[in-house]
Each structure stands twice: as structure tokens, then as C-alpha cells.
Design a protein that fits this description.
- By secondary structure, the protein is an alpha/beta fold.
- It has two domains: 157 residues, Rossmann fold; 160 residues, Rossmann fold (3-Layer(aba) Sandwich), CATH 3.40.50.
- It has ten helices and eleven strands.
- The chain has a five-stranded parallel sheet with strand order 7-6-5-8-11, with helices on one face.
- α5 links the parallel β3 and β4.
- The radius of gyration is 19 Å and the shape is globular.
- The termini are close together.
- Bound molecules: phosphoric acid mono(formamide)ester.
- The site of phosphoric acid mono(formamide)ester has 10 residues, from α3.
Amino acid sequence: MIQTKVLDRLRNSSVLSAAQFDKELLCELTKLAAYLQLHRFPVVHALEDKIMAAAFFEPSTRTRLSFESAMLSVGGKTISVADAKTTGVAKGESMRDIGQMFNSYADIVVVRHTEQRAVADLTEYLRIPLVNGGNGSDEHPTQALADWYALLKWRPEIAYGQIPEKFRLNIGIIGTPGNMRTVKSFLTLALLFPENVNHITIFSEMADPLGAELREMCNGSPIGINFSRDLQGSLEYLDVVYMNAIAYLGDGYRFFGEEFQLSAKSKLKDDTVILHPLARGDELSTDLDETQHNLYFNQADGAVWIRQALLLAIFDRVRNIVPDNLLN
Ligand code: CP
């Protein structure tokens, strides 16, 4: 049963941070996403009166297209900015004025921006919900929803009570959560599962990969957080490896060194899964694509359904799609 009372918390809400989600809300949203993915309605009209603006001031493949696909397949309409250079930004237009236009032209806006502050600044002028599609090095909350949707499909028992210790997860995160938006949002949601996540090991070249805000969050969690540079020597202990293409290392973006790369030759456990928000670089070899370690394509595929679930919850249209006997 899907708990509509829990999903109602998203009604007419903006989504700026993964920290807005607790375990209950995340799990109800993933249940709704699973229902939508299983049924793949040919045509429905749940959002036929709604327009979504996808305003991407930084390049994207998955986030913009999966949001648009999610909206279109439940009857909604989309308008898009795929390149900041095609907007008034190129002529110096302010985000404040752009925000006024979103109010007039759409019912919801998904924004990606290079600047961390741009998303919070925009919400000051918006009367419609805003979904953060990635703001600089800060957050990518709906990517984290897609990450955990993939993980909870892989191991649904993680969401329900405490499982025996030998089945609990040891997660490796390659990167610097304090400076990488997908990694930060993924880690934020990982902290919601203290019963079933044993350890999180962060593999980074940086002395302080968490930064002050995340360090405080991690210090308040019973999950053991470790730091290491020895990814290859730690692979035999990891059930999940979360990786990304680039790291922000103080003075700019850099690709990871060879010691943080994975290929089919890496000494992964047979049942270890790899998550990667994509796009990838050399850190994730294509020879892993055909292996059982590949959860990253599933992660990208599921993004449509978790984003559709989110849109339906924000517009309070879950009851238009899911039969009453599956709702509580
Ligand atoms: N995962 C992700 O944010 O991909 P895009 O940059 O293609 O949207």
C-alpha cells in the first residue's frame, strides 16, 4: 500500500535538498515509482493541465530528458531551456526577472545552474514549485532519489527493519561529498538507513572530503564513516560503490587518478554493485557494462519513474493514477 498521507507532504512543495526527505517519504516515493514503472501506462492524462519548464543553465542529458519524459508520459507539457546562451542570461538578464517569467509560463520549474546560490535565489521570486536539478557543487536531490530507487529495487529489505549483520551494506563513495553535488545528496540519503548500512568509506584525495555541514550530519549518525585512499585494496569489503566522473579539488574540476578507476579487472566481490550518475569518464570502464556489477544503467532508467512519482506527488495527482485499493 502507498501511504498518500506521507506523499501529501510534497504537495505544492519545492525540492531543493535531499535533506528534505526522511526515510518514510523516500520509501513511499520509491513505492509509487515502482508502481508507475511496472504499469507503464500507454497514455494517461493526470497532468494534462500542467506545464513544466525545464530550465537548464548547465549541460545535462539525463536530468532534463528524464524529467521531460516523466512529464510527457502522464499527459503534461514541457517547455525547455537547454542552453543558457539561448536565454536573456546571454544579454545579462537577472535570475529575478527570469523567475517572474517562470511564474507566468509554467506550473513547475526544474532548474540546473552552475551557481550554488541560483536555485535558492530563484525561489524568492517564484510562486510555483521549483525542483533543483543540480546547483553547482551543492546538491542534486532528485539524482539521489534515483540512486536510492535503484538500490531499494536491488535490495528492498534495506527499507524494512533491521536485517542480519552479514547482509547489511558497506558502501564505498569515491569522491568528495563536500564538493560534489551527486555524492553529497547520495550520502545525505544513505544516512537515513542506519539499521542496515554498516559502514560508509569515502575514498578521496582531499584532507577534508566532507566539509563542515556534512561532517556535522555524519557525526550525528550511528553509521561508521571511514576515510581511505586505498580503493583497490578495499574493494573486497564493499557491497556498493558510488562513483562520479569528476571531483572539485579546491581550485577546479579534475578527473580522478588511476587508483580511483574501476574496470572488469578490478577485484570487486561477485555481488557488488556500482552506481554512477553518469556521464562517465575513464573512472568507469565500459567493460563493466555487461557485468552483474552494473547498476548504473538501471539507476538512469529508473530516474524517469522516480521523477514522475515526484511530479505526481507535488501536483497532488497520485490518486488520479493509482487505484484506491493500493492507497492508504
Ligand atoms: N546524472 C546527471 O545529473 O546527469 P546529467 O548531467 O546528464 O543530467
